[in-house]
Amino acid sequence: MQLDKAEKQALITALAELKQQHRDLDLAISDMADTLHANQLEIGRLKKQKLRLKDAIARVESRLIPDLHA
User: Fold this and answer.
1) Which residues span the domain enclosing 27?
2) Most buried among 26, 55, 60, 70, by the most CB within 10 A?
3) Which residues are in coiled coils (predicted)?
């Protein structure tokens, strides 16, 4: 399925937002892990959220790649 220009731009924008959220979570996890009394439960929750974002990024990127079966 071919994307029109508006759909492609929307996906590119969404991808940039997802990547920014992923970077922000990475920094938050790193900062939290560096504290003396790190809340491991919260860190685990953030890591799971980061993995969900990574999956969402992969889905958007796969939609942006042209169909290789054609």
Assistant:
1) 5-64
2) 60
3) 1-63
